[in-house]
Amino acid sequence: MRILIISDIHANLTALETVLDDAQAQWDYVWCLGDVVGYGPDPNECVELLRTLPHLCLAGNHDWAALGRLDIRTFNPDARKAVNWTSDTLTPDNTAYLEALPTTFVIGDYTLAHGSPREPVWEYILEPLIAALNFSHFETPYCLVGHTHQPVIYEQVSDQGETETIAPSYRQQRQLNGRRLIINPGSVGQPRDQNPDAAYAILDVETNVYEARRVPYDISAVQKRMRQNDLPERLIARLEHGW
Ligand code: ZN
Q: How far is the CA of 141 from the centre of ligand 1 (A)?
């Protein structure tokens, strides 16, 4: 079975549609690692498109924020404004869908979490030291996370917990070799690795072959809808910088 792995769509329908076009029929099932909404102009459209696909989806911190489950006083003013707009815009049916999302999932050789296996909704795995501390918090060989919006693989290279960072090589098939890995596919709708292209991955869970991908999408169309909805200018600008 081939899995389309997506994360951090952030209400960016154009990016999600472009990823689905690019991946075509090369997958059988979708794993979505959370943050379907927040920041972008299309929260209902993204939830509704996802719901038409055979999929499982985790809850991310921005999904929880839109549900009022988080104290958003710690968010910066732009993020807060986007959260409030998202909460007001989501239909009751789509809100109910987000409310039912789990925070982790274990399936075969894979543990799934939005942030980290240790703190599924919150923790950012941005460096090998943090990855190293997380390997004892899941039992499967491999863990998939999102949340940082930066594609990467962390590999545990020794039983003492030494962990190495593997930068993504796109459109190249990688045979996962049984060494324990924490894999991040990057973000569909708001990349933060200075590459504005939408990120996703394809994973064959029978052969454990993983392929990271990037695809350019029509950023200006999304920015136009954000302006129409009076979303913060900083959030609009960052899409074209990929940061
Ligand atoms: Zn996110």
A: 24
Domain membership of residue 119 (yes or no) is no
C-alpha 21 – ligand 1 centre gap (Å):
22
For residue 123, the CA-to-ligand 1 centroid distance in Å is: 11
Provide the domain count of the chain. Answer: 1
User: Cα(38) to centroid of ligand 1, in Å?
Assistant: 8
Contacts of 15 (CB under 8 A, 6+ apart): 9, 188, 189, 198, 217, 222
Q: Which residues pair with 224 in a beta bridge?
A: none
Q: Is residue 155 part of a domain?
A: no
How far is ligand 1, taken at its centre, from the CA of residue 7, in Å?
Answer: 8
Domain assignment present for residue 128? The answer is no
Amino acid sitting at position 28: D
Interhelix angle for 233-241 vs 77-89, to 10°?
A: 100
Expressed in angstroms and rounded, the spacing between residue 48 Cα and the centre of ligand 1 is 18
Distance set, CA 33 to CA 125, 142, 146, 184, 232 (Å): 14, 14, 6, 9, 25
CATH classification of the domain holding 41: 3.60.21.10
Range of the domain at 202: 2-103+168-241
Quick: pLDDT tens for 111-168.
999 999 999 999 999 999 999 999 999 999 999 999 999 999 999 999 888 999 999 9
Length of the chain: 243
Between the CA of 103 and the centroid of ligand 1 the distance, in Å, is: 14
The answer to the question of residue 90 being in a domain is yes
